[in-house]
Please model this.
Amino acid sequence: MKSGVPIALVPLVMVAMNIVYALSAYPCGKLADMMSHTRLLIVGLIVLFGSDVVLAHGTHWSIVLVGVALWGLHMGMPQGLLATMVAHTAPAHLRGTAFGFFNLLSGIVTLVSSVIAGQLWERLGAATTFYAGAGFSVVTVVLLLFHPTPATGEARHVVGGRP
Model:
């Protein structure tokens, strides 16, 4: 009970995360209509990084609640955005297949990452699990900032441009 949250109240963590997720999904969807998808994805990853760091250090229930709220905000940011990106990328005649493949791949990656997170938690502790998540967020942001464009293969820097 390092976090100060009684074990019986731990399920409320998911309730709190889902409340923030639900409240942030629509405004974040509106943002996705007005700004670069890559930029919004990067902002979501930065929020996830913040959530992971706060949760790694959370020793009081109020700090854990802040981390959980950031986690919910992160969920509200990219979830609809990723579906929009699939819809915009896939040819119209393959859109159903693209969504099916995206959800299949997402499920597999979620399963594998959950097993890895569980092993980290079990062997090295909760904080290590959250630090690993923060590290993956940083790596993903770097890859998004400097990924090759599909048409030219040249690296681009999305902070200055509008991809």
Residues 7-145 form a domain with the Growth Hormone; Chain: A; fold (CATH 1.20.1250.20). Residues 86 and 102 are 8 Å apart (CA to CA). The two ends are 44 Å apart (CA to CA).
